[in-house]
Specification:
Layout (H helix, E strand, L loop, with lengths): L15 E5 L4 H12 L3 E6 L2 H14 L5 E5 L5 H11 L6 E4 L17 H16 L1 H5 L5 E5 L22 H22 L4 E5 L8 H9 L2 H14 L3 H4 L1 H8 L7 E6 L3 E7 L8 H15 L9
Parallel strand pairs: 1-2, 1-4, 2-3, 4-5, 5-6, 6-7
Antiparallel strand pairs: 7-8
Helix pairs in contact: 3-4, 4-6, 4-11, 6-11, 7-8
């Protein structure tokens, strides 16, 4: 049976989308395909220079596409609030929480959070909450939060979420990606006016794998990660298919979509998630902690 491809994306004329981390990798290809199928797309990027380069490249690849460039640093809640204020006019039909960092040496965000948890989870939690009025203004809004197979290794350490007592970069990444998955499921439970799903790319060649070694100045690991991408990984365009499926296909709220071949590569499909991802107690506790840390509350819909 033929697998789902970008050619199966329906016409999106008249729909508005925001994709975080759209300047490269999976985010770039997600934004490109949404735009090619008629959506008005905001590329939410941290680097103005890289964002502009991606914008220009996308304009050339999709002539006539309705694109806008927005400045967003998920590691700075001031930036998150400013972005939401600029781009929060509704309706917003599709929000793809894609941007992220992976396996970095311990760093702190502008607000003092551990960088991986702060960027991958808390930044997107705040952004989604601030854009909630725009999402509610859409007829059938969709929020896609990008997680990872590393969520299976994750554990939420509520006694040390910021890794202040003990920090291990891969454990911190697994925790952040598990938090993404729990958030997607909890959002779907709490905000029935929209559909919230998760997606993960499997093993896709992006710049994430080499960012950590480069920050550490580890040339050997940098080269090894680059070789692994070249030899074993599927392309970033293929890695974007689960996100695109989750954003545009007929999906189940609270589910996760990833590659069908061992969740490693291949066409997108609904995939199994770690048992802890569906635990209501973890979802409630993470939600409460996230509201407290970010200062962003999710107000109930008006009756």
């Amino acid at each position: 049976m033929r697998g789902w491809t970008a050619n199966d994306i329906p016409a999106l004329k008249g729909r508005r989308a925001i994709v975080t981390g759209a300047n490269s990798g999976i985010g770039y290809h997600t934004a490109l395909q949404l735009a090619r199928h008629g959506a008005s797309v905001v590329l939410a990027c941290r680097s103005a220079e890289r964002g502009q380069a991606a914008f220009d490249r996308m304009k050339a690849a999709a002539p006539g596409a309705d694109l806008a460039l927005g400045s967003l640093d998920l590691a700075d809640l001031v930036s998150v609030r400013a972005f939401a204020a600029r781009h929060g006019d509704g309706p917003l039909d599709i929000l793809v929480n894609n941007a992220g960092v992976m396996a970095l040496p311990r760093r702190a965000t502008a607000d003092g959070f551990e960088m991986q948890f702060g960027t991958n989870h808390l930044g997107h939690f705040a952004l989604t909450g601030l854009l909630l009025p725009a999402l509610r203004a859409a007829e059938s809004a969709r929020v896609v939060t990008v997680t990872s197979g590393f969520a299976w290794t994750g554990r939420l350490d509520f006694d040390d979420l910021q890794g202040e007592r003990r920090y291990r970069k891969w454990s911190a990444y697994g925790q952040a990606k598990l938090a993404n998955l729990i958030f997607a499921k909890e959002l779907d439970r709490r905000v029935p006016e929209l559909t919230s799903v998760a997606a993960h790319p499997g093993f896709a060649a992006t710049n994430l794998q080499q960012a950590g070694p480069r920050m550490q100045g580890n040339t050997l690991m940098d080269k090894a990660a680059g070789l692994g991408n070249a030899v074993m990984a599927q392309s970033a365009a293929a890695g974007a298919l689960p996100s695109l499926y989750a954003a545009t296909a007929d999906v189940e709220g609270g589910a996760c979509y990833g590659p069908r071949l061992l969740q490693y590569r291949g066409a997108p499909t609904k995939v199994v998630t770690p048992p802890q991802a569906g635990r209501a107690d973890l979802g409630e506790r993470l939600w409460d902690v996230s509201e407290t840390l970010t200062g962003v509350g999710y107000t109930p819909a008006k009756a």
